[in-house]
Amino acid sequence: MKSGLYTSRRKIVWKNLRGVWPLVSFFVVTALGAGLFPIAPGTMGTLVGIPLAYWSSDWSWPVRLCLWGGLVLLGTLAARTFDQLMGTQDNQNIVIDEVIGLGITAWTAGNNLTTWVVAFVLSRFFDVIKIPPVRQIDRWSKKKSNPLWSGFGVIADDMAAGFQGLAVILVLQGLGIL
Question: pLDDT per residue over 125-154, tens digit each?
């Protein structure tokens, strides 16, 4: 294990990123490079998710569901590929899961700036703290030997955290606080 920026869970083997799909996977999982940020890459990934979530916030729910569902599928395949290429499991440079988690938490934010700020904070809170069932999903995903499950497992705990954040947003909106 190296010290500093590239540890065993932040490993990047640049020579393995040859070809179209490995490069596409790299850019998808790092959210166009946000996952390479040396400090708080998950927070950077969440920040990258804000423009995408905002841009799609006024779309009809079926179209938005297709966008975010497609991103889950693409992220799953890309995370699996990236982890295989790097020889890691849930590489910390992977932040597409934070993008997706924010997209879920901010589902009802609309144009309300306060709700967007709260969605960002809640997305990070639930992802970091891992309140049940998020922690159990995170552990479960690491036990699966099937590489496709490991790709989905990288994303699944952040999706659960995103739904926890969305639940809080909906309660606050229902109470008229947001």
Answer: 999 999 999 998 888 777 656 555 778 989
- Amino acid at position 122, single letter: L
Cα atoms in the 13 Å half-sphere on the side-chain side of 23? 3
Nearest to 97 by CA among 137, 148, 157: 157
pLDDT band per the 50, 70, 90 thresholds, residue 3:
very low
Q: What is the pLDDT of residues 94-136, one digit of tens each?
A: 999 999 999 999 999 999 999 999 999 999 999 999 999 999 8
CB-based contact 156:146 (threshold 8 Å): no
Domain boundaries, the chain: 14-174
User: What's the rounded Cα separation, in Å, for the pair 99 and 52?
Assistant: 8
CA distances from 89 to 96, 134, 170 (A): 15, 17, 34
Q: What is the pLDDT of residue 56?
A: 97
| DSSP output for 79-138 | HHHHHHHHT-SS-TT--HHHHHHHHHHTTT-TT-HHHHHHHHHHHHHHHHH-TTTHHHHH
Torsion over CA: 42, 136, 82, 80 (sign): negative
The b-or-e profile of 111-144 (16+ CB within 10 A means b, else e) is eeeebbebbbebbbebbeebeeebeebbeebeee
pTM, two decimals, is: 0.91
Tally of CB atoms within 10 A around 63: 10
